[in-house]
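Journal club side-thread
Mid-discussion, someone asked how the predicted structure for our own chain would compare to the paper's figures. Pasting it here so we can look after the session.
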Amino acid sequence: MELKELLEGVRAVRIEGDTERDITGVNMDSRLVKPGDLFVAVKGTQADGHAYIGKAVAQGAAAVVCEAWPETLAEGVTYVQVADSESAVGRLATLFYGDPTSKLDLVGVTGTNGKTTVATLLYKMFRSLGYKCGLCSTVCNYIDDRPIPTEHTTPDPVTLNRLLGQMADEGCKYAFMEVSSHAVAQHRIAGLKFAGGIFTNLTRDHLDYHKTFENYRDAKKAFFDGLPKGAFVVTNADDKNGMVMVQNTKAAVKTYSLRAAADFKAKVLEETFEGMCLDMDGREVSVSFIGRFNVSNLLAVYGAARCMGRQPEEVLVALSALHPVNGRFETIRSREGVTAIIDYAHTPDALANVLSTINEIQQQRGSVITVCGAGGNRDKGKRPLMAQEAVKGSDKVVITSDNPRFEEPQAIIDDMLAGLDREQMRKVISLADRREAIRTACMMAQPGDVVLVAGKGHEDYQEVKGVKHHFDDHEVVREAFGI
């Protein structure tokens, strides 16, 4: 594609050099630049791409888009200055990869909890209905049935548009995508056209990045503000921010609720550790999911499918055949009758929801033992809140490490314990070694007890001092159970 065609998507402040030259790729990482590529210098949170313009040029970049004009210009390279290169890169990548969202219907899911479950279940449902689909999620990206490993909830704009372009080229009709608050704030979704958006819920998270809850909320809301007329929104009427999200959207709004008047309604008729029987919009359906938070997730899926033109009966049949996402309320049973539950719950609200569900089903027929920690180099304010929710909903708690990253595990544990009083501490032990913590909890459990292992879910690693070591909660539990 010629550079001048790409530049139609952005407003250039200044241009030096030939704009009729061919561009063979778009990159914002200088290490990935190949001869003929366009390098976009972005001021990121970790590094400033402007410092790597020289390296990109040395590797053969044909053109550079930047905010700050370079002191020296290399001969034969075209330089383009824009007011905001972070927002420009998405539009440039969209154009380069052939505007993929004009060729498929893209549905975005945002909120604090439930994004992965809702996006993945929609992907699985529409594939079961006979459509080719794509998925962008925390757990894995898929182009129909082909897995593409993922590093972030929402990839960078270049990776994202390349992936969506492949989905469109391979005949996908729909794509379902988790939309993180970081992705909105950093313009990673700039240039994409969404056919619909789903709001799950909003609780405290990512304040290490957004600084205030209001900033975090507004980043989520900006996604819905940007939806075009003709798109749909399905929003959670049970969340106090559900209607705030859609105040300024041009999209058609539908609501879902377990408690209030809404377009899509559901209630739990029966619940066990094997699943639930639900009344959904006046029809009974059995599902292999557990917990009221999952009823909410299933309602979001049902509502979105209805907005996408599917009939109630076919959606409910498809829902009844679906299974939980890896690491989301997964149960493992010991031969002695102890139930372990692996869940990704890594926010206070998510942990409270999971424990509430476990206690509703247990009805004091056995103890609840919770293993949990908190991630390093992330929002420190939620650490004592995590410990408080764990103690509130459990008979015994083992506080341990999660992904300590570049922090000392014991320092994170101390931050969690600081939220507990002397009485609460009687329920708690702490073990920095996560493997020992899980083993200890499983050894403490008696027949009929439930061990909740929270925080990592689908992750099969622990990140320590910048290195990812293999670690899978499922494997450790099975080893402790001897199965």
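Post-session note: The chain is about 30% helix and 25% strand.
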